[in-house]
Write a structure and sequence with these properties.
About 60% of the residues lie in helices and about 10% in strands. It is α+β, with helices and mostly antiparallel strands. Strands 1-2-3-4 form a four-stranded antiparallel sheet.
């Protein structure tokens, strides 16, 4: 047994030293020329970026930070992504296992009767018991197994990037949903305030109508405005409940109320430097995922090429065979075998060649996807920067509009009480004020969402995986 094992592994080692060839192309990243600066950025380019911040430092609202933390811990989409990473991690081990000798065992117990035509014994009954150890080793002369392992490892890294993408989307979705909830709160406050105002207006018009100083049409119009505001309140209360349920789903929690932190109008706007354009290629998880897809596709080309070459392997068998089960281990081995084998294709009907062409085409597909993802990333970043810049102007203009309309309502009511204006002037001023306040609330929300969008477009939090809660960093180990 010792001699057979020595011959086997000495032969494996000798041939293994020659197994340094890896057929197929080595991976090289396609050339990409990013623009010198992001379109829409205001300040000069600098290395610092909002994407360098962890998500809990972007906004100072403690309630939002807690909601995001709970979502990172409990969200089921993120847990699914984490489990998928573990699947791909295991596949790396599966692919790499073929580099090592495959050792197995076999046991056999057999009893049979054989007809013997010569002699007087008649039929012969026999027992056979055997215990065998088997060793097989494919020598990776052409690098097929190593290329396959390389592809599996790239797929594992791509799954990690996909998980980081899910995390980034989750953080963005929670922040977006929270700011939308704050906006609904503000709109509900406006609707209730308008309802009180319309109630006072209706009371005023009713008093003047009952005193013979006004017509029924004024009270009817005021009553219609009041009913409209009450209907808006009901709609907003329903939307708030549904928005709270949506946030709870992101948190992996049952429906229920959501706490509020800083009101919409008091939310601070953080500084948002975009950083350098070249850094975007290393920050965005979808870009990194697309690149690892290229690495995998390139390695699979090597696997396809290696299929044209012969497979070289060594095998050995050692064991005992005896008509009595106890004699298998008592006596020296009675069954052994050491062999080398070579097998390869001769004619496959063009299958191997077509598989190679298919893999080359898939490589071209991954390159196109990679470049398309980069174009999309720069577009999303530019859109977010443009939104930030223009929303500042929009909000300032709408604040002036709301202030002017508020003054117009006060003046129209004063003129109405003194008889210098009719009810149309009062209602028109009120009906213009409250939609303008709603529009201002939407602009305030959109400013916050533009920050969220920029953080997401830049691949925010890319350096903070080690600080993430357990569910988000679980798959950060090296394979």
């Amino acid at each position: 047994a010792a001699v057979a094992a020595a011959v086997l592994f000495a032969g494996c080692s000798a041939i293994g030293k020659l197994a340094h060839l890896e057929v197929g192309p080595d991976y090289a990243r396609p050339t990409v020329e990013p623009p010198a600066e992001f379109r829409g950025q205001v300040a000069p380019a600098e290395a610092a970026s909002i994407a360098d911040l962890p998500w809990w430092k972007v906004f100072g609202d403690p309630v939002l930070q807690r909601l995001i933390g709970e979502a990172v811990e409990n969200n089921y989409d993120l847990q699914t992504a984490v489990a998928r990473v573990e699947q791909f991690r295991a596949q790396v081990g599966v692919a790499a296992s073929e580099l090592y000798p495959q050792v197995g065992y076999e046991g056999q117990a057999q009893r049979g009767k054989t007809f013997v035509p010569i002699g007087t014994t008649g039929n012969l009954t026999s027992n056979v018991f055997a215990g065998l150890l088997q060793v097989a080793w494919e020598l990776d002369v052409w690098g097929r197994i190593r290329r396959s392992t390389e592809a599996a490892h790239a797929n594992f890294l791509a799954s990690e990037d996909a998980q980081r993408g899910v995390l980034l989307i989750l953080v963005s979705d929670v922040a977006t949903a929270y700011f939308r909830l704050l906006e609904l709160d503000r709109q509900l406050e406006i609707a209730r305030t308008s309802g009180k105002t319309y109630r006072r207006t209706l009371d005023l018009f009713t008093q003047r109508y009952e005193g013979g100083k006004d017509t029924k049409i004024s009270t009817s119009r005021a009553e219609a405005s009041l009913a409209s505001s009450l209907a808006t309140v009901a709609v907003l209360e329903r939307e708030i409940l549904q928005q709270e349920n949506a946030i709870n789903q992101l948190r992996g929690a049952d429906p229920g109320p959501i706490a509020r932190g800083t009101p919409l109008t008091a939310q601070a706007m953080p500084a948002t430097p975009p950083g350098l354009t070249t850094d975007l290629l290393q920050r965005r998880p979808d870009i990194m995922q697309a690149e690892h897809g290229m690495v995998s596709a390139n390695a699979e080309i090597g696997v396809a090429i290696a299929s044209f070459f012969p497979t070289i392997g060594l095998s050995a068998l050692y064991g005992g065979e005896s008509p009595k089960i106890g004699d298998i281990v008592k006596n020296s081995f009675s069954v052994w075998n050491v062999a080398g084998n070579v097998s390869g294709p001769i004619f496959q009907g063009g299958r191997l060649l077509e598989e190679y062409h298919a893999q080359k085409a898939f490589w071209d597909e991954t390159v196109a996807r990679y470049r398309g993802t980069i174009i999309q990333a720069f577009r999303e970043t530019s859109d977010a920067l443009a939104a930030q810049a223009k929303l500042v102007e929009q909000r300032a203009a709408q604040e002036r509009q709301v202030a002017a309309l508020g003054q117009a309502v006060e003046l129209s009511l004063l003129r109405y009480r003194t008889g210098l204006a009719n009810y149309f002037e009062v209602l028109e001023a009120e009906q213009q004020l409250y939609p303008a306040e709603d529009a201002l609330a939407q602009a305030q929300r959109d400013q916050l969402l533009a920050v969220v969008g920029l953080y997401k477009a830049l691949g925010g939090g890319w350096q903070t995986n080690a600080q993430q809660p357990q569910v988000a960093r679980h798959s950060g180990r090296n394979p």
